[in-house]
Amino acid sequence: MSDELLMQGLHLEQIGGEYVGLRDGYRFSMIKVSMGYVRLYAFVFVMQTPIEESMRKIIQKAVHTTCRIGGFKQRNDVLYVFPNIAPIQKAEVKLQKAETALTDAITTLKSFSFRTLDHCFVCGEEKSEEETVNRTFRQMYLPVHPSCAKELVQSAKQAVENEGTKTKNLPFSLLLGALGALIGLVPIFLGMLATGSVYAILYAAIPIAAMAGYKAGKAPKLAYATAIVIALSFLAMLFFEFWLWTSIASEAGLTLAGLIAEYPDTTPLILEDLGISVLFTAIGVYLSWRFISGTVDKNAKAAETIEKQ
Ligand SMILES: [Zn+2]
Q: Is 244 found in the same domain as 215?
């Protein structure tokens, strides 16, 4: 079933690229959440007051489907309701299940007098001279004063500018990043000295150490920092691989080129080894991804979507 059909069936609107709805005074968005390879639909309610675990269980029981709690303005103030939709179900069944989950969730929230956020999500106040409007921000549907939305965008842009002034720290940060990548090699090296084997999983430590080094240098946390850290990590990995195979060759009294020329059978071995090293370095990049990708310019992008609504 396409998102459009579901959107029409549930009478949702599209604002700022998100599907949103307003029923009985309850504001919600319908998003898709990735869980591994599966993408699930979820209704997202940002609440005025936190939802405790006991309450989550009550709601979950009432809607006969999974509910999760997250945080936005305060801990536990976001409710996620996952309608029980399976990809193989017919369109009408999907729509019906989504509709039931949504209705039941709102009925339950209502019966316990839980309301969705009714104050501006930026200032949290009432302004006599200004009414709030409904906007989407980070996939949530929220009330905001137009002037507060403007301020939010402004301060996010300001943060990018401030971050940009840190470029003078870049050379030092690069140095520390490279040093970090080399330090990230230490576990592999020690493991090899101790056991005579290379534990590929330890390659994952390289990007994590490189990122820590880069951060310690206080250079800008802008998007290109991610590329730098990844490049440094792979360079360190290649450096180690080169050193490893050169020392293997020298034990046979050969250069690396000589080893490959004289023993063609080693080429697939080297390539396989390299492949595994790339894989585990990439796993390290993935593990540190949240840390790496949480850059200031990304935050600004999230804020900027408000401007376009
Ligand atoms: Zn406000």
A: yes
Q: How far apart are the first and last CA of the chain?
A: 27
Total Cβ atoms within 10 A of residue 266: 18
Number of domains in the chain: 2
DSSP-H helix ranges across 204-252:
205-216, 223-251
CA of 77 to the centre of ligand 1 (A): 18
CA of 130 to the centre of ligand 1 (A): 9
The alpha carbon of 141 and the centre of ligand 1 are apart by a number of angstroms equal to 15
Measured in angstroms, how far is the CA atom of residue 48 from the centroid of ligand 1?
Answer: 15
> What is the Å distance from ligand 1's center to 52 Cα?
26
Whether 171 and 71 map to the same domain: the answer is: no
Q: 212 and 288 in one domain?
A: yes
Distance from the alpha carbon of residue 53 to the mean position of ligand 1, in angstroms: 29
Q: Mind listing the pLDDT tens digit of every residue in the chain (309 residues)?
A: 477 888 899 999 999 889 999 999 999 999 998 877 778 899 999 999 999 999 999 999 999 999 999 999 999 999 999 998 877 788 889 999 999 999 999 999 999 999 999 999 999 998 889 999 999 999 999 999 999 999 999 998 888 888 878 888 888 888 999 999 999 999 999 988 898 888 888 999 999 999 899 889 888 877 788 888 899 999 999 999 999 999 989 988 999 999 999 988 889 999 999 999 999 999 988 887 766 667 777 778 888 888 888
Tokens at 57, concatenated: 């269980």
Report how far residue 302's alpha carbon sits from residue 292's, in angstroms, rounded to the nearest whole number.
Answer: 17
CA–centroid distance, residue 122 to ligand 1 (Å): 5
The DSSP code for 65 is: S
Range of the domain at 290: 165-301
Helix (H, G, I), strand (E, B) or coil at 72: coil
Distance 30 CA to ligand 1 centre (A): 24
